[in-house]
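Hey,
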Amino acid sequence: MAIGVRSYRPLITGTIHMVSSGHYLATAAGYRILEQGGNATDAGVAAGIVINVTLPQYTSFGGVAPIIVHDAQRQETATIAGLGRWPKTASIDYFQQHAEGDLPQGILRTVTPAAADAWITALKLYGTMSFEQVVTPALELAEKGFPIPASLHRPMAGLFAQATAKGWTSTLDTFFPGGNPLAIGDVLVQPDLARTFQRLIQVERENASKGREDALQAARDLFYKGEIAEEMVRFNQEQGGLLSMEDLADFNAKLEAPAVGNYKGIDVYTCGTWCQGPVSIQALHILEEFDLKGMGHNSAEYLHTFLEAMKLAFADRHAYYGDPDFVDVPLDGLLSKAYAAQRRDTIDPNRASPAMPYAGDPYQFQSGSVNAVKAAHPEPVGGRLEADTSYVCVVDQWGNAFSATPSDSGGGAPVAKGLGFVMSPRGSQSWLDADHPASLAPGKRPRLTPNPAMAFKDGKAWMPFGTPGGDVQPQSMVQLFLNVAEFGMDVQQAVEAPRVSTWSFPNSFWPHAYYPGLVGVEGRISAHTVAELERRGHKVDIWDDFTSKMGCLCAIQVDQERGGLSAGADPRRDGYAMGR
């Protein structure tokens, strides 16, 4: 605990198990499963599916869910690539010919729904419970409803206007059965989503005699090969989409090795370059040799150094990151300490780079060959800075840990008729430039913003952490990590501390807004510090004191010496932590 650092919420502590998530009802669901004897994965999946029910403006059961799981007994840490793929008939040429070179909001952005498979895959490989057991809290909330808080009412009012304008009758029927947005305190019931859960439970029950794993697989196959798959494809194609039964049948949320880095003896694990996860590792490697503590927390010198390091990591993301099944990403070079040292040397301590820097050349630190450095100075593009998604993390009594970042908002595409969820519109994070590593291609995954993380000490889980927020995610995550590792804050202090963000790179969401030099700063950063950042060339935009644009961090820290657990959750949204 950092003495003198104020936090508005108490640090949640315990010795048995702990869960923290982006919604209080999801946290309660995860805790309920832990108290019933479930492990971290059982609880994490239960909380994640509740998030799909309670945060439809940010996530979907048919959306995305990248996951990191640590199994303490097996001494194994793996990622589950809960991200869909473009339909086989999708192509850049198709969008050039049929959409005037645009990725229009709606059904054409659909990639294969991935969250359902990711949740069930995690449960099958690392959990102990049935799908019915872990989905029951979500089923109850979908069937019986929950009162709408102000944080849900505001975006749902916007969704009502959007769905009305676009003629998304299935969305209107799902969320606005009375023809108007529900008021704060009104109970939101989602019977179609409840029936989807019940159908999956029924198939699992019918196959229970074959054993737990086969029963889970049968439920999963109903979604991707059975009647639910047929209903998704029928709706998608009726709306003009490209999704096919073959696309669904061929999809799987496969297990992949994590990206791994190290900051002063702390190992940091993220998902791979099919998402932006390694950006956090790159930034930490660049920052590692600076005397950050000596600079002072949130001083102008510290924030300038942090922002410039993030710009370098984002420049490399833009130049190299993409689906590794399609793109040869030089990840070893990007994450090497020698490459980080080279990038570090380009930071001017007195002057901000006015735009996104040029990408570096990681190949010479991977294969020894020198590659032509890619110029990366696109023209500025206007547009929104998107910030959907949620997050959940769990640590259990056996030392297992779970970290997941579910996403895909109800405003990205119409709700699938009769099913109660949106099919992943994550195609919005692709490029229609064939030379871009994250370009659209048949069967290819978009480059995803959601990216959970997990930190380790001496091979044991030390801190799962993450946040929603689009491109702000690695920025807020790195600041939280440094608040704990460098400045000695507890996780609640680290979550609440004021944050900054750079937007000096093309945004991940179509049309890839780009604001050279722009820095978002929470209002609690001192005026003197802001003036000094501006003097160094940053274009500072003052945001609210606790703005949701900076995400909703959650983290759990393990005290490996004394056996305690502590959890933090962000007041910027509806995050809460619970444990004992």
